Amino acid sequence: MNADANSIPAIEVEKLQAGYDGDVVLQEVTFSVRRGEVFFIIGGSGCGKSTLLRHLVGLNAPMAGTVKFFGQPFTHAALADRRALLKTFGMLFQGGALWSSLTLRENVALPLEEYTPLSAREVNEIATLKLAQVGLGGFEDYFPAEISGGMRKRAGLARALALDPEIVFFDEPSAGLDPVTSRKLDELILQVRDTFGTTIVIVSHELDSIYSIADRVIMLDRAEKGVIAEGTPRELAANSRDPRVSEFLRRLDMAARPA
């Protein structure tokens, strides 16, 4: 890939308006995500974080505005072009979203069977490799109910990585995990980025993860229905004059203070 191509953001969002059944949740949302960046979408409950994510990946159609991946239009693209772009990113949902009736290997194999002409043997080999990459070697024939919540998240990540995506989206990846397991998942996310150059987009309100692995963040606000801050979490915590931003990002400091 040449230097000019590398200068094109992985994701460009311009004046996005999002909502459901005519009810506007977000409006005039504009931001970009650089290639190889760990980018967080943060904010309090009900601010539209998951709504934005669903509209980015095409699960819901925006009311207005555009989304581009690697400079290519996605929002209004033809079906064949959208399908090609969908193959460039993976998605890890909150609970892992694994099929309970399938083994871990069969779950990881699904996107390979759907989007590639690979043989059954090749699909099996790649699914086994992806599980090994997330530390689940030896668990290929386990069912989701037979493993822990943290392991299910890892299996979901293995499936998200099945097609070697250039972007992986995460919806509250630490939800339901204990602090140690959450930290290990953060480390795995960084390992994926560093090993494969993957662009990472994470919806989260977990400050430990935000401060540990985020390169940049945007913060959404329910009342504003949009972005109220953008930058590195530490810079925003130290310098933002908006009390909504500083209070959200200083919760760890406040929690550590003696009563």
Describe the protein's architecture and organization.
The structure is a single chain. The chain has a domain at 98-164. The longest helix has 18 residues, at 179-196. The strands form 2 sheets. Strands 6-7-8-3-9-10 form a 6-stranded mixed sheet, sandwiched between helices. 40% of the residues lie in helices and 23% in strands. It has helices spanning 3-7, 49-56, 79-86, 104-115, 120-133, 149-160, 179-196, 207-213, 233-239, 243-249, 251-256; strands spanning 11-20, 23-33, 38-42, 64-69, 72-73, 89-92, 167-171, 199-203, 216-221, 226-231. The chain starts with a helix and ends with a helix. It is an alpha/beta fold and 259 residues long. The chain is globular and about 55 Å long. It contains 11 helices and 10 strands.
Describe this protein with a few key phrases.
259 residues; alpha/beta; six-stranded mixed beta sheet; 11 helices; 10 strands; disordered C terminus
Summarize the helix and strand pattern as letters: HEEEHEEHEHHHEHEHEEHHH
Low-confidence region ranges: 253-259
Helix share of residues? 40-55%
SS elements, strand count: 10
Number of helices: 11
Percent range for β-strand residues: 15-25%
The N- and C-terminal alpha carbons lie at a distance of 55 Å
The structural class is alpha/beta
Radius of gyration: 19 Å
Mean pLDDT: 90
Can you list the strand order of the major beta sheet? 6-7-8-3-9-10
Oligomer: single chain
Largest sheet, in brief, is: 6 strands, mixed
Outline:
globular
